[in-house]
Amino acid sequence: MTSRLLKPLAVFSRQSQSQQYIQSIKNLGDAWRTLSEEACTESERTTVIKTTFDFVLKVTTEPDNFTVEMMTIEPPSPKPELSNPPRHYRIFPDYGTDFLWRAVEDIREDEQGYTEAEEELASFPPSVLAMYDAWVEQYGDNWRRTVEDTQDYRAPVFSDRIEQVTWNVAGYMLAWRIVLGPGVGSVVYTPGSTDYLLERGNESVTKRFLGDQIELLAMGAKGLP
């Protein structure tokens, strides 16, 4: 039986716009009906989502325990130690940008906070930038159609809560993939009005994120931003 906290992942897995992000999935209700099957050696209480952007999310739901593990699919190539301090980012939607900013504490006086995803993700596998760009483009397409074209700047970007949660979950996993990249210290992911600090050792933030997505789904169409 799927844990209640896995509902946003189940919603994400069943949407057509999500298929570009998912390579395979295990132990998440009937998601296997539309996704490729692979041998799974995990416990039946462990849900495994393998993405197309070199990232794996594992969530184990025991009666009194909820654990999360994130990893890359391919082992990182050995790299020389860098003398530069780790980079920290913020990711939040802002139409016309790549949604990617350097954290305030990283910005020098002669720099600006906004940066280009193509530059920052150059050392990642190409699939990371491709799927990140697709995620940003999805939001941009929606924004142009529902806000810019109608000139209604109070209109919701997403057509319903399912679409919104699906987009939020995709972004959450992409942000974690960036955290696992070379030279990255943390990412503050803000899909709406709530900040989520993503950094190695803080995987438990996933429980709060999924709980918030459940609340969004429960709101239905009411108050859609």
Please characterize this protein's 3D structure.
With 225 residues, the protein is an alpha+beta fold. It folds into two domains: 4-71, no CATH class; 87-219, no CATH class. It has helices spanning 7-13, 117-120, 126-148, 161-179, 205-219, and strands spanning 22-26, 46-51, 56-62, 65-71, 87-91, 100-102, 184-189, 196-198. A four-stranded antiparallel sheet has the order 1-2-3-4, covered by helices on one side. A four-stranded mixed sheet has the order 6-5-7-8, with helices on one face. Strand 5 (87-91) and strand 6 (100-102) form a beta hairpin. Helix 1 crosses helix 4 (161-179), helix 3 (126-148) packs antiparallel against helix 4 (161-179) and helix 4 runs antiparallel to helix 5 (205-219). The protein is globular and about 45 Å long.
User: How many structural units, i.e. domains?
Assistant: 2
Terminus-to-terminus distance = 32 Å
Major sheet, described briefly?
A: 4 strands, antiparallel
Strand content: 15-25%
What is the element layout, followed by pairings?
Elements: H1 7-13, E1 22-26, E2 46-51, E3 56-62, E4 65-71, E5 87-91, E6 100-102, H2 117-120, H3 126-148, H4 161-179, E7 184-189, E8 196-198, H5 205-219
Parallel strand pairs: 5-7
Antiparallel strand pairs: 1-2, 2-3, 3-4, 5-6, 7-8
Search tags:
globular; 225 residues; 4-stranded antiparallel sheet; 2 domains; alpha+beta; 4-stranded mixed sheet
Compose a concise summary of this entry.
This protein is of the alpha+beta class and 225 residues long. The protein has helices spanning 7-13, 117-120, 126-148, 161-179, 205-219; strands at 22-26, 46-51, 56-62, 65-71, 87-91, 100-102, 184-189, 196-198.
